Amino acid sequence: MTEVKHISLPITGMDCANCATAVERSIKKIEGIEQVHVNLASERASFEHSGGNKVIFDVMEKITKAGYGIAVGEARLIISGLDDEQNSSTLESRIKDLPGITKTNINWVSGKVSVNYIPTLVTQVDIRDQIKKAGFEAQILGDQNADTEEMVRKIEYEKQRRDLFLGLLLTIPLFILSMGRDFGLIGEWAQQPWVNWLMWALATPVQFYVGRKYYTGAVQSIRNKAANMDVLVALGSTAAYLYSLPVLFKLIPGHVYFETSAMIITLIKTGKYLEIKTRGKTSQAIKNLLNLTPDQALVARENREEYILVSDVLLGDILIVNPGTKVPVDGVIISGQSSVDESMLTGESLPVEKQVGSDVIGGTLNKQGSFKFEATKIGKDTALAQIIRLVEEAQGSKAPIQRIADQVSAIFVPAVVIAAILTYLVWQLFAVSPPGPGSSQFARALLNSVAVLLIACPCAMGLATPTAVMVGTGRGARSGILFKSGTALERSGQISTVVMDKTGTITYGKPILTDIGLASSEQSKLAEEQIIRIAAIVEQRSEHPLGEAIVAEAKTRGLVIEDADRFTAISGKGVKAIVNEKQVLVGNAVLFDEEQISWVEAEEKISILRGEGKTVMMVAIDGVLAGWLAVADTVKANASEVITELKEMGLNVLMITGDNQQVAEAIASQVGIDGVMAEVLPGGKSTKIKELQEQGEIVAMVGDGVNDAPALAQADVGISLGTGTDIAIAAAPITLIRGDLAGITKAINLSKTTLATIKQNLFWAFFYNIILIPVAAVGLLNPMLAAGAMAVSDVFVIGNSLRLNRKKIN
Questions:
Q1: Is 71 exposed, middle or buried (0-12, 13-18, 19+ CB in 10 A)?
Q2: Which listed residue, of 59, 259, 291, 308, carries a Cα 20 to 30 Å from 423's Cα?
């Protein structure tokens, strides 16, 4: 089966929602491409495909033809071992095997290699490692950890800044000159014909150099059949500029509007500059995560300690972490102890005590002691790298509510152009009141139609949802909550029912053996320890926490645990195996009834134990009850508090478990849960979720992310409890890194806050256009004010989204 690959490409040149639509439409034309999402706020295009590198190049070609670009970085390396042209060709071929390599230039004489690459698909370290695999030594010139995509964005930002500076340099004196003349503030000389030529000289570079992007963008968007903001700006500013030319040449009487055309370009350029600057803050969470990993690691190799680059750490390396330094990669402590600050990843403010055998996570801060640990995960496999990948994917996805803005944006620009034409025709043909002094009917009609073009703002609609999703998912990551998509972020705030698994969710999932009982027929033959040993022999190959509790007790007592033969696990019921040529069953009442093994004599005692909230497993040898073992799990400290909070939020809270009804109800009563679904096999949990959904409930399922995978997938919102190192295996769209139940209420509150912000943004975007387009059409809005308002609207939406960073979500 061909592997489906998830690809994310950094796009340059997108200004509004219609730009994102054009890119998305272009990518969808390629056969075999699925799940295409283009996010204006993160400037990323993501899609899935099952082809090779050629598909990526096909996508790049489509994006380029649509008038947009891909952020590409350059890696420069020094290679040793290149002897001839043959080696050079071999190396070039191996480098091009990597995804995201756009160009390779190898000079085997000087030993220098230059590689152009897409930073979201491959890194400089990947390129270096590929060269090493080809049998050559390579050294990266420059900073191998540099954020290439960020550098490309900075170049774009600097270009915008230079254009804006030139626009202001020419437009400000032009505006002062024009206003001063109109209000009679600068003397009679300003009425001389040469002043109009001076205005033309100041306005023309602004129109065609500073504003060149609007012309090229307008042409490309029309070619792509997705008219965007560039069309509105180009039409509006050009109309004012072109009208002024015949006045300048004295072909018609009237007032020149060069200051209007220049101000339109410069004001909108100012807005775009502020937008880019502000939009960068929405991805601050990713930048903060990227900065967590230290550049160097202290490694113990060959009886000596040395500092190496983190990218050079190998699996199995023994690393040393001193007080006040960061843990470079994931691993397990082999000597020493300390307390580690994991707040940057989990949101937990208190340092976590670590000792031999404890897991440590790369990017966390060692506080007091020093320790040595063995590297178990490096590079893209570390918890931090997985978190960054998940957050990036979430920020690049679309929330369902964004469809509203997408549908409106698709027809918005053509509708505004039609409105502007109608405005012109009405004012030109039917206006009764005379135009102002120095103006004409034509000029007034033209300026009002230009105001309609410029007040309309599709960008605010395009930014309303993605900026809020980016900030919301980033805020969640800082609090130890990973949303894997915009859909999950939005849907969480609409939950009506929360279903919680018992073992490992409400309880710690680390049960201990509490009671041992012997059947009357076996009391003379077996001692308690023999029952424990026999059960442990069968359970040692089981992965269930209850079986692990029996094995742990046997080891604590120093019992010998032999290997069993013909081990079989019966899902949700128990296990069986051959021990010393005898058939041994360890399981619940359902298994014993199916096997027709009588357990009547133990029924009363087992009922008492279940009433205490203990899970009982019976042991049978060769079809005869031998005894029973009771195991109890501890309820999490804050389980009752969290469930109370969920109820106060108006949510229905249920517990689902494979345990029997009596035990389930005992645990549920401890934490305040009223509804219990007991004796549900793992495969049946998803069916129970579906039944709730058929009743109209929007269901969140909370589980451990592995055993509950079908139920997590079936639920409207799946929430898995992680431990900080198993983020990648979680099946749910939401992962709580710390495994803390308090994260459930935080996730729901964050979702509601984010959704409220999205609605505020959309309300502003729609209200702004619905109100101000008619205002401009009736002649109450100057084109320059319209351009300024258009520029401010984008910044308002982004600023409102950034407020999420300051809101409380507890």
A1: buried
A2: 259
Amino acid at 119: P
For the chain, the residue count is: 810
CA 322 from chain centre, in angstroms, equals 33
CA distance 229 to 256: 25
Secondary structure class of 223 (helix, strand, coil):
helix
User: What is the C-alpha to C-alpha distance for residues 500 and 676, in angstroms, rounded to an integer?
Assistant: 10
Burial class for 362, CB neighbours closer than 10 Å (0-12, 13-18, 19+): buried
pLDDT at 347: 61
Q: Which DSSP category does 502 fall into?
A: I
The neighbour count for residue 653, using CB atoms within 10 Å, is: 24
pLDDT in the model for residue 264: 82
Terminus-to-terminus CA distance in the chain, angstroms? Answer: 45
Q: Are 761 and 755 a contacting pair, CB within 8 Å?
A: no
Distance between CA atoms of residues 600 and 596, nearest Å:
12
Buried b vs exposed e over 416-435: b needs ≥16 C-beta within 10 Å?
bbebbeebbeebeeeeeeeb
CA-CA-CA-CA torsion sign (722, 725, 731, 734): positive
* pLDDT under 70: residue ranges of the chain: 1-2, 142-149, 182-183, 190, 278-286, 344-350, 395-398, 432-439, 457, 521-526, 682, 705-707, 723-731, 810
| Pairwise CA distance, residues 393 & 8, whole Å | 8
In eight-state DSSP terms, residue 715 is S
Neighbours of 594 (CB within 10 A): 12
- The residue behind tokens 């059949």 is 225
At residue 729, the pLDDT reads 46
**Bridge partners (DSSP) listed for residue 569:** 575
Strand order of the β-sheet with 34-39 is: 34-39, 44-49, 5-12, 69-70
Options 163, 330, 501, 716, the catalytic residue: 501
Q: Rounded distance, CA 604 to CA 608, Å?
A: 6
Nearest CA to 7 among 28, 40, 35, 41? 35
Which residues on adjacent β-strands are paired with residue 320? Answer: 298, 372
Q: What is the 3-state secondary structure (H, E, C) of 122-158?
A: CCHHHHHHHHHHCCCEEEEECCCCCCHHHHHHHHHHH
**Closest CA relative to residue 487, chosen from 375, 397, 555, 554:** 397
Q: What is the C-alpha separation between 442 and 425, in angstroms, rounded?
A: 10
Count the neighbouring beta carbons within 10 Å of the beta carbon of residue 566: 9
* pLDDT tens track for 313-362: 888 999 999 988 999 999 999 999 888 888 766 666 668 888 898 889 88
CA-based nearest residue to 391, from 474, 492, 282: 474
Q: Return the exposure string of 194-206: e unless at least 16 CB atoms fall within 10 Å of the residue's CB, then b.
A: ebbeebbebbebb
For the chain, what is the radius of gyration of the CA atoms?
Answer: 34
Nearest to 665 by CA among 712, 709, 607: 607
Q: Is residue 501 among the annotated active site residues?
A: yes
Q: What's the rounded Cα separation, in Å, for the pair 467 and 399?
A: 11
Give the Cα separation of 31 and 392 in Å (integer).
25
pLDDT of residue 667: 87
10 Å Cβ neighbour count for 112? 15
SS3 content of the chain, % helix, strand, coil (to 5): 50, 20, 30
Q: In 3D, which of 464, 474, 481 has the Cα closest to residue 399?
A: 464
The pair of three-digit structure tokens given for residue 281, joined into one six-digit string: 């803050």
Strands 338-341 and 101-107: unpaired
Q: Is the pTM higher than 0.85?
A: no
The DSSP bridge partners found for residue 338 are 354
Distance CA 489, CA 751 (A): 5
pLDDT of 83: 73
